Amino acid sequence: MTALELIRAFAHDTAVGIVVTEVTIDPPGPIILYANPVFSRLVGRDLDQIIGQSPRFMQGKETREETLDIFHRALAGGKRFHGYLTNYRGDGTKYRAEIDCRPLCDTTGWIEGFVAFEREVIRRVGRPASGAAGRYEPVGESSDPLAGILQALSVFGEA
Question: Please, which pLDDT band fits residue 124 given cuts at 50, 70 and 90?
Fold first, then answer.
């Protein structure tokens, strides 16, 4: 079973948006190979409009180039990216996304692609909390059985 097949088997029903892309990060890539239904709802597009596209379709006028540059450098170096972007849904409405993207490696350590976990966040009201989330918090809480596994993998947390 490949990593992509394993992700497909477990990610379909999770409460977090999950996307798997090919390894090529320069335009027109990376190309989305898999996205779960939560990601589809988050970005406001059907899965058949997502698969085969680059995640760049979510970017817009308030998506910060500096953050995209940091994201690109991390992936080019085979490293994890954890940060926040302003993205846009299919209807043009913007949302703030927390993204945790990691290389997807085969058994020899060769990077085959990238897996990204994405959720919508909102700015905290009042004094920012300490820790990785800082001034943002998730829009919804998860009772997903995979939440514990994602937490153990430090998804949306410290590396």
Answer: low
